[in-house]
């Protein structure tokens, strides 16, 4: 499921869309001890308008984010289609359109038994049907051609907490007093979720599932491995950490300011060149070696790149957009300098009269210190 396909479904995930219908809605409330306190499945159309708007908003969040960061596609292992395993359960939910109570109980049990979630939470899920209109060679919808249906489920895991609403004004008594709230408030924004099957090559792909995490650097691995029965891959934060470890290991004493900023700039160029592509740009060891060489790293150092890459990353490529920084941040024990992405070349390191110095080139001599214009002397 690439960016273009994701955006197609996300754009149509609305009651105003003429191509997508949200058929059924399932909701369940689970307490911290994993007890199911409430569950219900009903047609989406009978939900009151205001409630339906909130539900649709929460579920649409699962389609939001950057592929490779907030959204990661996973392939099911072969055994996942066996009875009791994730792919078989999810497939049955889609085919039954959430109308079979036994199947929905198995779906909910798979989540509640295997999820690692310390607080109360809700499970929101909808069965949807998207009418796939065929496209012509100009990538325009061809209304005269035959259509195909993409039936899928979107599932959101939303935290539920009480909220201390503080002081309130009582018009009857004309007083201000403290009020506590004992009702559980369900967050509109899910922490996790998934879409099954994925929309790939504008068709359903039942062998893959798309996992969503609100915090790209903190995916809930229990959902990936124990609920969805998939093998966890590196998060965006882990990819960047491995990349930095490769640089530290390979480049070592040549890792100066110029090399770091040059590498960052060249990877940003790769990202920029691929921004209109449907797939996120990946970097393998050979491409990274080329970037490091162009950034001034010696050939002697580069000999260690391939074994270090294999050890720390393996045979997969690193997502280029996960490796870059929009700002260059230089940190010393006493001073932190934040530099915008296009101004990294304005800072230099140098030794002046035996002292190590950071030098900032200024085209404009006007500077502001603590909100006040200052004179350069």
Question: What does this protein look like?
Answer:
By secondary structure, this protein is α+β, with helices and mostly antiparallel strands. The chain has 3 domains: 3-159 and 186-233, no CATH class; 237-322, no CATH class; 328-374, no CATH class. 29% of the residues lie in helices and 29% in strands. It contains 10 helices and 20 strands. It has helices at 3-12, 49-61, 86-96, 101-114, 221-227, 236-251, 257-273, 285-294, 299-302, 305-312, and strands at residues 20-30, 36-43, 71-75, 121-133, 147-161, 167-170, 175-178, 185-186, 192-196, 198-200, 203-205, 208-213, 282-283, 318-319, 328-331, 336-339, 347-352, 355-360, 367-369, 372-374. The strands form 7 sheets. Strands 1, 2, 3, 4, 5, 8, 9 and 12 form an 8-stranded antiparallel beta sheet that branches. A two-stranded antiparallel ribbon has the order 6-7.
How many strands in all?
20
Fraction of residues in helix: 25-40%
Total of domains: 3
**pLDDT under 50 segments (min length 5)?**
none
Task: Give the H and E element order.
Answer: HEEHEHHEEEEEEEEEHHHEHHHEEEEEEE
Largest sheet: 8 strands, antiparallel
Termini separation (Å)? 58 Å
**Portion in beta strands:** 25-35%
Number of helices: 10
Mean pLDDT: 89
Quaternary structure of the protein: single chain
Cα-atom radius of gyration: 26 Å
Mass-distribution shape: globular
Q: Which structural category fits the helices and strands? A: alpha+beta
